[in-house]
């Protein structure tokens, strides 16, 4: 099994857009619930809060899986490694478990940023490296550019968006996917099917959504500030959706509800 998928136990606590005390409280609550994988980014502006919160948990460093992402503004040769060192300092760690490129660069030439990501890996700044928001073609090219395995491509993935082509492309390239916007920022709750399916398993609509993602072979990132929701998002390993229910949910992917596009983020590529 891929090291990223394995180390996160398939579930990571995402920290966007949390800041300050709210971030620290949510992260500490997630740790108490059982999360050991935590996802942040230079772009989020909360690496320091994440580091402080994880330190306060007292959890051994080897038991944590910490992911951060390099901002595209830092892809320049003069900024890349310095920015990663600053991230490590903010997180109060000597290395991160997973270092990702947050977006492909504008202009489409992915090689320079990937080569600098490899340099960060070679220097021991990260145990594993990967990418985020890469297309099928970019994933295919990326594996030929870097020597280290790319352990994930973190992308928007939820049951209201058909990502089957991207998932197949990822499998072909040998790069597992991980999700963000896992509940489509609440849009899934407008669809009664998830709650209806959940009643048959004694689970909530959100738990059904997250379980569907896992059963698609995609690891899950979720965020909440509410202790009950943080726990519920973690408690998704004790049931399995039937093939019938998986297919019922699959039909909703044709809704085509995409959250992150070029209107929201200038680095967003032309999606597959």
Describe the structure.
It is a single chain. The chain is an alpha/beta fold and 272 residues long. The chain has a domain at 3-181: NADP-dependent oxidoreductase domain (TIM Barrel, Alpha-Beta Barrel). The protein has helices at 3-7, 20-33, 47-57, 80-91, 111-122, 136-145, 164-173, 192-199, 205-215, 227-234, 243-250, and strands at residues 11-14, 37-39, 65-70, 96-101, 126-132, 150-156, 177-180, 220-222. An eight-stranded parallel β-sheet has the order 7-6-5-4-3-2-1-8. Helix 2 packs across helix 10 (227-234), helix 6 runs parallel beside helix 7 (164-173) and helix 8 crosses helix 9 (205-215). It is globular and about 55 Å long. The mean pLDDT is 96.
Q: Report the top-level CATH class of the domain at 3-181.
A: Alpha Beta
Give the count of helical stretches: 11
Question: SSE order in H/E notation?
Answer: HEHEHEHEHEHEHEHHEHH
Largest sheet: 8 strands, parallel
Terminal-residue CA separation: 26 Å
Shape: globular
What is the architecture of the domain at 3-181 at the second tier of CATH? Alpha-Beta Barrel
Count all strands and give the number.
Answer: 8
CATH fold node name of the domain at 3-181: TIM Barrel
Rg (CA only):
18 Å
Q: Strand order across the biggest sheet?
A: 7-6-5-4-3-2-1-8
Uncertain regions spanning at least 5 consecutive residues: none
SS-based class: alpha/beta
Strand content: 5-15%
Overall pLDDT confidence: 96
- Helix content percent band: 40-55%
Q: What do we call the CATH homologous superfamily of the domain at 3-181? A: NADP-dependent oxidoreductase domain
